[in-house]
Records
---
Amino acid sequence: MKYYIGVDIGGTNIAVGLVDENGRLLAKKSEPTQVERGCDALMEKTASLCVQLCKEQGKNLDEIQKIGIGVPGTVRCSTGEVMYSCNLPLERVNIADIISDKCRLPVTVLNDADAAAYGEYFVDGNKFESFVCITLGTGIGAGIILNGRIYNGFNGAGAEIGHTTLIKDGILCACGRKGCWEKYASATALIAQTAAAAEANPNSIMAGGKIDGQTAFRAAEKGDKAAERVISEYVEYVAEGLINVVNTFQPNKIVIGGGISKEGEPFISRIREYVYRYDYNRYMDKTIISAASLFNDAGIIGAALY
Ligand SMILES: [Zn+2]
């Protein structure tokens, strides 16, 4: 059996995991990222988490094949250099060299959404020619796998499907454009839509309480009309963006990740129905659309194994 370490460096936490060649996550460890402490501290913490995890699991570093690191940002995968990250103090830093020096192991680096997509693709059985993973989170993460390889453009900056326009002159996005898909279909967007509906409908059971990504779903289950309108509209926002993906790639499979995907089949089936009704393909086989299976661990497993 071969063993790998996967690392998911996020804006809030750094998570490291020991992964075997079958994609099983054997152990995991995480710590707050503390971005304010800067790049050197971040690299030191990442390396020490990898070493600690091995020690705790009774493995020597030389039993590990490699460390794979997923980072939110643009990565030059051939060298392991992070070019830019909007959440982390990493700009033109070769983190593969730094971590490799500290841990004396080969290190690969990739974008975190690509890592998550590869993790989902791998545990799904590596079998599809084309596979897309969409993560509905703070923003929308997207990873595209074509013929077993991550496709992210000639320069590594591609697959940013969350930053394709859904509504011209719509809500301003951090990327500088207006009306990006993620401003309407991310978890953050759902929470904002729920909060607006709660304020506009004081008699709704959503009003007055704490609002999160589940609020509208739970209220709609109890027959709350305003909540049902929020969910219907949100389903359409998600599905309209997915139709763009389907019409562009006609992938074998799309998986939907992020906390909201835990709503499971009742949510996914509504999205699927809408996509199948409006996508351009009328008579050929349809793209399989399902919830992701790994949730928060996809990035660690994908980074470890890619
Ligand atoms: Zn954008």
Note: The chain has nine helices and 13 strands.
---
Amino acid sequence: MKQTLWKGLLFLTGQVKTWTGLPGYCSFDFGSQTLLLDQSLTATLDFPPLQLYFGSEVTPPQPTDSRTAQLRWAGDFHWQILTGGQWPAEALQFVHAYLPYCFCSWIARREQRAISIAHFAQTLDGKIATETGYSRWIGNEENLKHAHRMRALCDAILIGRSTLDQDQPRLTVRHVSGPNPRRIVLGSRLADYSCLLDAALESVMVIGTEKRGAENLIEYCSLPCENDRLRGLPILQYLFQKGCQSVYIEGGTQTTSNFIKDRAVDILQLHLSPQIFGSGRPAFILPTIDKVEDAVQFTNFHYQTVGDTLMFVGQLPCDGSD
Ligand SMILES: NC(=O)c1ccc[n+]([C@@H]2O[C@H](COP(=O)([O-])OP(=O)(O)OC[C@H]3O[C@@H](n4cnc5c(N)ncnc54)[C@H](OP(=O)(O)O)[C@@H]3O)[C@@H](O)[C@H]2O)c1
């Protein structure tokens, strides 16, 4: 079942990317447009019809087919299930979980920057690796599939240079079907890129703070920095200019914390693994706060099931201001 739905979601993501004649954000905000997945998709899916409805003030039209599920876009990354029709609950949940990411390119065009989604698999005491930096695998099998789905839905995946050195990840989509994202490494020190040097070499980009020449034919770009640190929003704007409308940030601590510090994360996904290290590397290192109200606050959040455990998914205000 998931495979069929997954195919549909990939199709939808591609469609949204090519919606050049799409009305602007404003007309969509309170418009009364209904987007019906085209007939071929409905037929391929072998599921009852699914209507995606863009409008928050107008009552959606009564579907002619009573089996129809209706979902309404409620702004940014929120989709409300208006009616489940005759969709199996698990199928609807699956579509609902990934639908927001199918529309990243739409929001990116509005914001003129890449949309950023950060993900960690962490223990119950908030560790993403042991003291020695070992992190494979803190999450479960389904989380791995989830991460690969996200890679396929996003245009780029980004990691810090230390994660590259420590984990030597390939950063490709292997556990599900779908396109490989561009692979971006943040860092200025020399690193061992051998795990990325496959046939899709041109899909690798290193973004650092120092000017230097091409290294092993990998595209290298230096962006202006402050105190040897790149700021999150300019990175997202640069990625957008390079044709990446969404980026999946897969850590580690410094990289993701920097983006959060810069208010340059749209969505945070935290896979909660039912274990405690009692030592190890924390998921986040942020400036010290004195009061609880100074904590990083999520505007919208929920917990979703990932295999035998849960994932926290929350939205952050992403505006790059201090
Ligand atoms: N459990 C999980 O989900 C998960 C996921 C990913 C990683 N991990 C673990 O996380 C650990 C690594 O985390 P980490 O915090 O040590 O390192 P990291 O975030 O992977 O990499 C840090 C490096 O990235 C570069 N960098 C990051 N942000 C930058 C910015 N804003 N401007 C310029 N450069 C920037 C710098 O590279 P240069 O020093 O080259 O300038 C910095 O030293 C590993 O143990 C890994 O296994 C766990």
Note: Residues 2-17 form the longest helix (16 residues).
---
Amino acid sequence: MATSKLFSCLLVQSMLLLLVLDAANAELKVGFYSKACPNAEKIVKEVMDQVMSVAPSLSGPLLRMHFHDCFVRGCDGSVLLNDTVNLPEKIATPNLSLRGFTTIDRVKAALEKACPGIVSCSDTLALVARDVVVAMGGPGYDVETGRRDGNVSNAFETRGNLLPGTANFTELKSLWQAKGLDVKDLVALSGGHTLGTSHCSSFSDRLYNFSGTGRADPSMDPNYVARLKLKCKPNDNTTLAELDPGSVRTFDGQYFTLVAKRRGLLTSDAALLVDSESKAYVLQFTTKGSTFFKDFGDSMVKMGRIGVLTGNSGSIRKVCYKNN
Ligand code: HEM
């Protein structure tokens, strides 16, 4: 009897140890929720298909939201938090133009209904980003899941981590390197600008006062400058211009054709032509045999690994805009 008690005690102990080790080694993986919430990805897709059918213009903002989440404190859902002890990331300048937070709440509510407390907000955002890309005709790719949510969100941490549209190639490359991303990732993910719009204020220096010269950016096609000037007057903070005019709601490689023709809208888009390595990727992505779709999916997966919390770290928020 004593031996069997000792045996079961040891068994329980070693099982607990295995569980702890498992949690400590926990990593992201495709299908993380296959047992705990088998329909998780299906639920996200269903809600997103509904949202995209009535509000396709949210595709750009929602894709961008995942990027902004990952570049500040890692992909931990911190961009979604409303009020923490700090002023949250949401109120920082680069995030003021984000939209679609209520869509995330809607998706998360559907997930909570099916599987309470299982699917993190950071994973919800990563899945939503993939599903909007697919809904707009872009590549499907396997999203790794298993992220947990952070409980800190600090507006000041966006500084230096979310660069403005005026960023040059050196700034972009070094930030991306610091995040573990290379030039190929930079070019492929900039292809996210195939969707959505930009405020005139994010690029109007290129039209009216490039580098304080009082003239337009000489690296921008002058015909394009003239057309944009009709739309964007100096000091206009409200008008929106399409990042990829003509196919703003289609996820395709047209963005790279425009960049190659010196019609990239932001300085950071035009910067991809400055460096020979990034230029070669831009040109590759304009060809018939372009690997853009495959490379975009690969780079999204890589970006989705930045600074993630897994295992026992972080939590699973019930509601994405507040800590439990
Ligand atoms: C390479 C560095 C990047 C810079 C400097 C940058 C900067 C910007 C800026 C300034 C805007 C316009 C914001 C506004 O004025 O409303 C914008 C929009 C956008 N960005 Fe980026 N971005 C970068 C990379 C990315 C990446 C990696 C993605 C996603 C994979 C992305 C997705 C988007 C989308 C979809 C929009 C349109 C949003 C909308 O329609 O509201 N960007 N970006």
Note: The pocket of protoporphyrin IX containing FE is lined by residues 60-61, 63-64, 67, 97, 163-165, 167, 172, 186, 189-190, 192-193, 195-199, 202, 243, 266, 268 (CB under 6 Å).
---
Amino acid sequence: MKKVLITGASSGIGKALALAYAKKGFTIGLTARREDILHEVAQECKNLGGTPFVYKLDVQDAEKCKSVAEQFMKDAGGIDIAIANAGIGGDDGLYTGSSEQINSILNTNILGVTNTLMPFIPNMKEQHSGALVCISSVASFMPLPYHGGYSASKIAIRMIFDSWRPTLQKYTIKAVSICPGFVDTPIVKGPARRFPMKSAEDAAERFVKVIDLGYSTYIYPWPYHILIWIVRLIPERFYNWLIKKMFGKPIT
Ligand SMILES: NC(=O)c1ccc[n+]([C@@H]2O[C@H](COP(=O)([O-])OP(=O)(O)OC[C@H]3O[C@@H](n4cnc5c(N)ncnc54)[C@H](OP(=O)(O)O)[C@@H]3O)[C@@H](O)[C@H]2O)c1
């Protein structure tokens, strides 16, 4: 039976990934801070044919990430796929005079990913197989006003994966960066909800396929390729004018 650990499995994309893997009969490590919700997700996974294990975890806690990884590998009998999905949005708190808001985003979305994934790498190296997955974002290709921390965190993890990929290939470990555009989950707030969104279920079904195929960087859905291409081509002044019109106020 294949084994996958998912962070941020209590909601949105992480929950949808857990259910998609449950349908395939996987053993699934469900982690997040809200343990009560994880138990409900675990029951749904069982109903769909999966074997879930629940672990309460804050991805900012490196020691706890390590012990949860070790416990999951004991409970499940190994690891095939580790998905660093947990993440937070929110604005930088640009005028608050404090780095608290932006640092919380950077800590969760960058260090949370390395805390989650690094404990699995020695096992994957030894077994010469496995897949590491991070959920980056289309926001990693374009700076959004008031969201420097979020965009930067998503570039950072994509860059870490770009750096790791050629080295890990030697041990047939895949490093898959997934870059979603808007997906209908609680993280999408304020003016962003005006944009077309894919459902978390559709997104997860697609992500399970691309992880299996071992894509390097996957942008979802495909029209975002065109948007990213346009953003690269237009002059910076025009981009800044346009993006300020679209996201003129902080999204809290
Ligand atoms: N939805 C989109 O449009 C979109 C687009 C691009 C990228 N993404 C990325 O996709 C990932 C999943 O987001 P989502 O859209 O599914 O949002 P979501 O529904 O808000 O889910 C976020 C998940 O992360 C968990 N989480 C947050 N902080 C955590 C922490 N410190 N420790 C452990 N778990 C934590 C939350 O669980 P608890 O609160 O229970 O801990 C929750 O399960 C994020 O990395 C996000 O940046 C989303």
Note: The two ends are 42 Å apart (CA to CA).
